[in-house]
Amino acid sequence: MYQVLYRKWRPKKFSEVVGQPQVTVTLKNELKSGRIAHAYLFTGSRGTGKTTCAKILAKAVNCLHPVDGDPCGECEICRGIDAGSVLDVVEIDAASNNGVENIRTLREEANFTPTV
C-alpha cells in the first residue's frame, strides 16, 4: 500500500521530533506530572511539526501504557490513532476548515462522550 512519505516517516515519539525541543520537553513534562491542559493550540509556519506534535500528544494522553511521557506505540489506542480509526481523535486542517459552519459542526461533534 502506498503511503505519503511524510506520513510514513512521521516521528512517533517526542524524542524523534527535530527542531522543537522547547515544545517536546514542555509537553513531556506536563504528561509526566499529570498536569495536562484542557486545550492546546499549535500554531506556526507550515512544516514545523504542529500536526506531528499534536498526534504524539493525543497518543500519549490516551495511551494505555505510556513510557516516560511518550506513547508506547503498541497498544490498541496508539495503533488506532496512527491508523486514523479512533473516533475520539480528529485531525482538522484549519486552513481548509475555517468557516463558521465548520466550527459549528466541530462543536456539535465535541459534545459526545469519548468512546475509548
What does this protein look like?
This protein is mainly alpha-helical. The protein has a single domain, classed as Rossmann fold (3-Layer(aba) Sandwich), CATH 3.40.50. It has five helices and no strands. α3 runs antiparallel to α4. The protein is globular, with a radius of gyration of 15 Å. The relative contact order is 0.13. The mean pLDDT is 89.
Task: Write a compact overview of the structure shown.
The protein is mostly helical.
Layout of SSEs?
Blueprint: H1 5-8, H2 21-33, H3 50-62, H4 76-83, H5 100-109
Structural class by helix and strand composition? mainly alpha
Shape: globular
H/I helix tally: 5
Q: What's the name of the CATH homologous superfamily? A: P-loop containing nucleotide triphosphate hydrolases
CATH class: Alpha Beta
Strand percentage, roughly? under 5%
Rg from C-alpha positions?
15 Å
CATH topology description: Rossmann fold
- Mean of all residue-level pLDDT scores: 89
Q: What order do the SSEs take from the amino end to the carboxyl end, as H and E?
A: HHHHH
Number of domains: 1
Number of strands: 0
Q: Give the uncertain stretches in residue-range form.
A: none
- Which architecture name does CATH use? 3-Layer(aba) Sandwich
Main beta-sheet strand count, sense and barrel state? none
Helix content: 40-55%
Amino-to-carboxy terminus distance: 27 Å
Top keywords for this entry?
Rossmann fold
